[in-house]
Design brief:
Pfam families: Glyoxalase_6. Residues 9-126 form the VOC domain. This protein is an alpha/beta fold and 126 residues long. The chain folds into two domains: 11-61, 2-Layer Sandwich (Signal recognition particle alu RNA binding heterodimer, srp9/1); 63-126, 2,3-Dihydroxybiphenyl 1,2-Dioxygenase, domain 1 (Roll). It has helices at 20-31, 87-97; strands spanning 12-17, 34-39, 42-46, 53-58, 80-84, 100-101, 110-114, 120-125. The strands form two sheets. Strands 1-4-3-2 form a four-stranded mixed sheet, covered by helices on one side. Strands 5-8-7-6 form a four-stranded mixed sheet, with helices on one face. The chain is globular, with a radius of gyration of 16 Å. The mean pLDDT is 94.
Length: 126
């Protein structure tokens, strides 16, 4: 018996955090995306050009990951890679928007930062 593959389409990536609205505001400013749905504990952002969205869900027990990873500490489960034209300019903008630069930078051609909820994300050149 052959089962046909149903249609799958990735709609959004959801980040847990202590406050969905605070994190949505940060990523909205960083990426220039608009809020398309806002609920008390959940916010959806969409890229104006379309594609996969980014959502934020408030979780009271949220624990930020430790990066670089350490045994027995909260591990990151994913991170966002964000393409930029100029690393220095993009990093300065991200920090002004509320990001924090990670102390450990593994490569010269990317920057690791933390969003306001402590999720690591990378800026890298085209």
């Amino acid at each position: 018996m052959v089962v046909e593959k149903p249609r799958f389409s990735l709609a959004t990536v959801v980040l847990d955090c202590p406050d969905a609205h605070v994190l949505a505001d940060f990523y909205g400013r960083l990426l220039g995306w608009e809020v398309t749905i806002s609920e008390p504990d959940w916010v959806l952002l969409r890229c104006p050009e379309g594609g996969t969205g980014l959502s934020f869900q408030s979780e009271p027990g949220y624990q930020p990951p430790v990066w670089p990873e350490l045994p027995e500490e909260q591990q990151k489960m994913l991170h966002l890679d964000i393409r930029v034209d100029d690393l220095t300019e993009a990093e300065a903008y991200a920090v002004a928007a509320g990001a924090t630069r990670a102390a450990h930078q593994p490569q010269d051609d990317l920057r690791v930062l933390f969003d306001p909820a402590g999720h690591p994300f990378c800026l890298f050149l085209h």
